[in-house]
Design brief:
By secondary structure, the protein is an all-alpha fold. The protein has two domains: 26-99, Cytochrome C biogenesis protein (Helicase, Ruva Protein, domain 3); 100-134. It is 64% helix and 0% strand. The longest helix has 30 residues, at 105-134. The protein is flat and about 90 Å long.
């Protein structure tokens, strides 16, 4: 009897959660406008998430930026004007693929420098280890090692 009651309560709980689900509202009745919004949104970085585009993010700021892009497109601005506005307001960081210039050079060269540094460190470690194993020992070192191993 208790199993039936608990199963009934569980079923009611699971079904009641489904009643809160809603379909996502269409933000624009014009599918062409939504495609343009999505195309621009994919190229802009979410300033909250920082590793997602505003098209992928559900952060409040990302939603606001998408709405702003939509409004700018309705006003007749083109993609280049919208990106310029966003860069002027938030800096080059807002672009998911920032341009190559003096202020963004670290973003472009940094990963390559880190890779070169990691390779250089790996070569040094391997060389140091290989030299340490092959070094001949003096008779004093061998005697000292025997003494240490005795204890």
């Amino acid at each position: 009897m208790i199993k039936k009651i608990s199963l009934t309560v569980l079923m009611v709980f699971l079904v009641s959660n489904l009643s809160f689900a809603e379909e996502a509202p269409l933000l624009a009745k014009d599918p062409e406008l939504e495609e343009r919004v999505k195309a621009i949104s994919v190229e802009l970085r979410c300033l909250v998430c920082q590793n997602q585009t505003i098209a992928d993010s559900n952060a409040g700021l990302a939603i606001d930026l998408k709405n702003q892009v939509r409004d700018m497109l309705r006003q007749g601005m083109n993609e280049h004007q919208i990106k310029d506005f966003m860069v002027e307001r938030y800096g080059d960081f807002v672009l998911y693929d920032p341009p190559v210039k003096g202020t963004t050079m670290v973003l472009w060269i940094g990963p390559l420098l880190m890779l070169i540094l990691a390779f250089w460190m790996a070569v040094r470690i391997v060389r140091r280890r290989s030299r340490g194993i092959d070094l001949p020992q003096s008779s004093e070192d061998a005697a000292r090692a025997r003494e240490l191993l005795k204890d």
